[in-house]
Specification:
- By secondary structure, the chain is an all-alpha fold.
- Helix content is 62%, strand content 0%.
- The chain has one domain.
- Helix 1 crosses helix 2, helix 1 crosses helix 6 and helix 3 crosses helix 5.
Length: 128
């Protein structure tokens, strides 16, 4: 695999984690796995890269279904292979679920550092 295709694949996987995870949980609720239809409809509707949809399916499904086999030719051994590659790439347990991906996509939030303009805030110059 050359540099450009590897870059595009990694970029698509990153968008599947950071963009697709919140969209799936917002549209369909939090689940251990999502259906192929839910994943592909969300990718199409929000215009995410569908070239690497097999990786999106592997992120959000741990069991092969009729649709994974007929629509995308992803049987259980191939799905397990993709999931092992993703687990290695994302430093996850190989038996990860969609909930684990949702946890990766959750915003980090406030870390407890001081406000960037703490001196002005201390002197009452801001609206805090």
């Amino acid at each position: 695999m050359n540099f450009i295709s590897r870059y595009l694949k990694n970029r698509a996987i990153k968008s599947y984690v950071l963009k697709l995870a919140p969209l799936l949980s917002k549209r369909y609720g939090v689940s251990d796995q999502y259906t192929v239809g839910q994943i592909s409809r969300t990718i199409q509707q929000y215009k995410l890269n569908s070239r690497f949809i097999a990786y999106a399916i592997a992120l959000y499904r741990f069991e092969a279904s009729f649709n994974t086999i007929t629509r995308h030719q992803i049987d259980q051994p191939f799905l397990d292979q993709l999931r092992a590659e993703l687990a290695n790439l994302l430093a996850l347990n190989p038996k990860f679920t969609a909930r684990d991906i949702l946890a990766l996509a959750a915003p980090a939030g406030w870390k407890g550092d001081m406000h960037t303009n703490w001196e002005a805030n201390r002197h009452g110059k801001t609206g805090f």
